[in-house]
Amino acid sequence: MVSAATRRSLLKARAMDLITSAAILPLLFGCVGVFGLFKLLQWLRMRAYVRDAVVVITGATSGLGRECARVFSAAGARLVLCGRNAEALEELSRELAASPAAQVQAHKPHTVIFDLTDPGATVRAAAQILKCFGHVDVLINNAGISYRGTIVDTSLDVDKRVMETNYFGPVALTKALLPSMIRRRQGHIVAISSVQGRIGIPFRSAYAASKHATQAFFDCLRAEVEQHDIEVTVISPGYIHTSLSLNAITANGSTYGVTDETTAQGRSPAEVARDVLAAVGKKKKDVLLAGLAPTSAVYLRTLAPGLFFSLMASRARKERKSKHC
Ligand SMILES: NC(=O)c1ccc[n+]([C@@H]2O[C@H](COP(=O)([O-])OP(=O)(O)OC[C@H]3O[C@@H](n4cnc5c(N)ncnc54)[C@H](OP(=O)(O)O)[C@@H]3O)[C@@H](O)[C@H]2O)c1
Ligand SMILES: *[C@@H]1O[C@H](CO)[C@@H](O)[C@H](O)[C@H]1NC(C)=O
After folding, report:
1. Can you tell me the distance from the alpha carbon of 113 to that of 169, in angstroms, rounded to the nearest whole number?
2. Which GO terms fall under biological process for this protein (predicted)?
3. Sequence-ordered list of residues with C-beta below 8 angstroms from that of 26, at least 6 positions apart, any chain
4. Is position 271 within any domain?
5. DSSP state of 168
6. SS3 state of residue 32
7. Which position among 49, 167, 207, 239 bears the catalytic label?
8. Ligand 2, atom 1: closest residue by C-alpha
9. What's the gap in Å between 253 CA and the centre of ligand 2?
10. Shortest-distance Cα residue to atom 3 of ligand 2
11. CA 110 to CA 226: how far, in whole Å?
């Protein structure tokens, strides 16, 4: 004998079964399907945007620039590789020309050698870059140099050199290529900045200043060129495992020559390069590629500046003690 209450609960359970099988599951699959389709379409659009695009990469001889060259080449872009080290550029160019993607698309990369701290050479290089494929679709301002030292001991020449490489160089190159982009009503300018373009860390003054300037310049540019259908993307990564720390300059202009622990534990440049490709493909305007701690620091600087400043001061005291500088 089954009681009325048990029968009612049995009925309820059966009804629930019916709902989950008849409505929830298809709905769930539907959502996943729509999401998957959306992602696939986004991916296809991204691929189409980069395929055959003329992409110029500065600082392609090392670290993030070199990995960007590999990633954009694999995505079918036509590359113009820039740097000062001709041999390293040629070697990379040969590697990319021999890669499977290049076999299919037959795009041999071009190389343009110049020093970003020389404005005349940069303007001449821009003309050479335009001649490679007749136009530029994407300019990736990636080349850069870092710095270590106390402000009180640092010669002004060092401040200027960092600023010339990280700020005036990209600005000169961008200005030289911009008129042709405006004429075509098409183009995309990317600046590789840094978390240090958002916050100032002790003993990195010249570098942080150059990256803050970069962020501001390209934010202004974005607003000005929107009417010409030109995209501007500023990317601010946290530490990446490259030669940046090794190549950094010190207070007297000598090469630092040490890979700091923070850099050694940074993200792989290949991984960051894939994020750069995604940011470009999705036409992102501003991307912070950093973990929880640096991201929190960026927000803290805006929301609780007093707390941020005392944290930086205590960091400076600690570092000064450990390095006796
Ligand atoms: N590594 C990090 O932790 C990190 C974090 C955030 C942002 N970033 C940024 O990422 C970008 C790439 O740096 P990376 O980490 O890949 O460092 P990297 O391995 O030292 O590479 C720097 C590149 O810049 C080029 N370069 C330097 N000075 C130049 C000059 N005067 N003229 C022309 N090219 C010059 C170098 O090429 P040549 O020597 O052949 O000229 C090299 O290819 C930089 O803008 C850097 O600020 C790096
Ligand atoms: C520059 O400073 C470094 C220490 O940071 C020192 O080893 C080097 O001798 C100095 N070079 C010159 C030319 O003063």
Report:
1. 14
2. lipid metabolic process
3. none
4. yes
5. I
6. helix
7. 207
8. 252
9. 8
10. 254
11. 29
Closest-CA residue, ligand 1 atom 48, reads: 240
Domain that holds residue 75: 53-293
The model's confidence at residue 33, banded by pLDDT at 50, 70 and 90, is: confident
Question: Does residue 307 lie within any of the structural domains?
Answer: no
Q: Is residue 248 part of a domain?
A: yes
Residue 44 lies in a domain: no
Give the residues surrounding ligand 1 with Cβ less than 6 Å away: 58-59, 61-65, 83-85, 88, 115-117, 142-145, 165, 192, 194, 237, 239-240, 242-244, 247, 263, 266
The band of 10, judged by pLDDT with boundaries at 50, 70 and 90, is confident
Q: Which of 244, 272, 287 to mutate to test the pocket of ligand 1 (most atoms within 8 A of CB)?
A: 244
Q: pLDDT-derived band of residue 324, with 50, 70 and 90 as boundaries? A: very low
Mean pLDDT, range 227-247, rounded to an integer: 97
The enclosing domain of 58 has a CATH number of 3.40.50.720
Q: Quick check: 294 and 91 in contact, CB under 8 A? A: no
